[in-house]
Request: fold
Amino acid sequence: MRSFAGRDILSLKDFERAEFFHLFEVADRLEPIARERRNTDLLSAKTLVTAFYQPSTRTRLAHEAAMLRLGGAVTGFSDAKMTRAGDFYQESIKDTVHMLEYYGDAIVMRHFQQGAPHEAARWSSIPVLNAGDGWGEHPTQVLTDLYTILKEKGTIDGLTFVAIGDHRMRTMHSLGYALSQFDAEMVILSPEEMAPLPEFLEELDDKGTAYRIVDHIDDVIADADVIYMEPVVQPDYTQSRQEKQDEYGLTPANYQITQEVMKRAKGDSIILHSLPRMDELLPEVDDLKHARYWQEAYYGVVMRMALLASVLGAME
Ligand code: CP
Reply:
């Protein structure tokens, strides 16, 4: 297994099974710190730089919270408009990264351009973590999701994932790549205009991810062990920012999880949603035993602790 020390976390395409389990094991070792709401000094000599060119609540703050739990410092920006990359100069990623690499020991970057964190990693002498790049990938989110599933169900192997929503989404891509390393099936349900791209499906074929495409929630809800959701009413992820319009669509019933739909689900199935949500996941579902998205938020901090401790060489 490759060492995580000094490594960029850009994609789950090249992640091996042993690497997933290694991170899960590091997360297990660090989890008591988060559970007991303690701060430690494991990364007290380190600084994380956040470079967010697109809005975020969870991903940025979970990385920051993880760094603070481990005693590290955080600097950075959450709105590129307040930097030279977002004003008259439109400073390049290369020039920006050549500054940021002197301000800290790892960079976590979200960008509206697919491949931007990869470009940053080309020029950076410190590890770069991809916090979501356009429609590309969202590796730290899917590592969080898989860790949540392992904790909640005791296994990832043998499970049927019903992935509902916009399959152009970066989480869906990282999930599809990751599941190639597990004995699990991905069942794809999306509106036609949000179907996975043929190139992505070819990649899943090449990697050996087991998947099938279905048309209706009724065809699969009884098979689901994990209901993995993304909105279908959402912004264009290739834009730096999109304000909510006065008029916007509602989620068709076929892509919605409600209390009524969940009556037909397995009793021990779980629902994950990386959030934020629109009307695809109604608040009435929050009260069901299946809901695990708040646990997912908690494990989001734990997984980012594991990632930061690993890439910064504090945990082997
Ligand atoms: N799930 C997720 O990426 O949330 P944020 O956009 O709030 O970071």
